[in-house]
Amino acid sequence: MILALLDTLAKGKKVDVKMSGSPFSLPENLASDEASPYWMNKGDNAWQLTAATLVGLQSIPGLLILYGGSVKKKWAVNSAFMVLYAFACVIFCWAVWGYRMSFGEKMIPIWGKPNVALDGHYLIQKAFLGKLPNATMVYFQGVFAAITLILIAGALLGRMNFYAWMLFVPLWLTFSYTVTAFSIWYPSGFLAKMGIIDYSGGYVIHLSSGVAGFTAAYWVGPRLTQDRQRFPPNNILLMLAGAGLLWMGWSGFNGGDPYTVNTDASLAVLNTHICTATSLLTWLALDLVFFRKPSIIGAVQGMITGLVCITPAAGVVQGWAAILMGLCSGSIPWFTMMVVHKRSELLQMVDDTMAVLHTHAIAGTLGGILSGLFAVPKLNRFFYGTSLHYVGLFYGFTDGRVGAGLRQMGVQLLGILFVVVLNIVSTSIICRLVQQIVPLRMSEEDMEIGDEAAHGEEAYAIWDDEEAKVDCKYELPKSKGAGQVELT
Fold first, then answer.
1. Domain that holds residue 203
2. pLDDT, tens digit, 9 for 90 and up, residues 253-281
3. Of 29, 187, 178, 170, nearest in space to 89 by CA
């Protein structure tokens, strides 16, 4: 009887069992009720809400203070405000129409039907994956969508017209992000059906944001010449605080994507930190060898490329693979940024402020390819429920499934091509459309001034060059008696 009961519970079915004439009851914390239906796992739901909040903290305040500290003093407010606005705008649009376009009823093979995710009856129903309510899934996926737009902002800091940014955010969310999310993450999407491996957003978030950011930077145009030539961080310690929030928040970024509390989630979190640490150390070593100085900014770049590279593979590769991926993510983007970019006239034409092409597009592409090489069939089975089409090429050779491994690499490459083309085209169209309404770029005069011109506010007004205008001034002590000083 007990074995039958446990089997029924394991299958997620409602239990109504009587023993010796008395109703058998579960412990109160496990028993289902109207607010905790039998299909919902309380532990999974608690972790998912926590993971979503960790991802949200990566943006607010993580990237907000990372961007605010990484730019010139005159752009600190504008850069931080671009992050804050994007987060709020995306969350609103996501609930009103974006979520259902990404994870709702299929309209076409690459897109869902637009619909609201606000109805109370809908929000308390079971989500499309996991033992969670829709409300939790809307929140979790919403903070992922928000950070994608915020990463795009990194390429546009220091010159984009804020009014243009206000229009760009909802348009790009609607006509680019939702398409990629549906195609790759939703079970009805065409790339999802083909078996693409994107554990937590190497394609949907990082490759998309890197390509879109670089494309948008082309259309917006460059910063002022003096800003491109010299753009020192106004507060490196603040920048490091933001970077730390980004790194630690990635535990929720990758650890939340199994939608359950299991060994795969644990593996994803550990692999995330292993790869990131290896990548940072690799980037630092290269800086020491070639520039003879350990760069803090370089270390942060290496940290980011490690986080990005492991994301599509976090829960489907072994620890040794995470180290290899860290070595690659700390060296290949370093080479493209420090060598290829400086020698390429085409790349230098585009002013990518935070180098998102290298830290997100190239690192995301690298992660997608390495996922196709190192993905373990057993771990894929943990995550996807089957290993039929999820075979890393290296395991295809060792397990006698070379055809499946080659097919997997083909799907991974097809996914890269799809995301790159989609984002170049959609981002270009959106930028051209916005340009018909408001200028994409601030005026030369406003860019000379920065925050004061854009928002009428400054980050460090008390330490401005015009300190003489401060009303309170200290004068030399006047004779008022022993120990007395007059403040005028």
1. 49-223+230-448
2. 999 999 999 999 999 999 999 999 999 99
3. 170
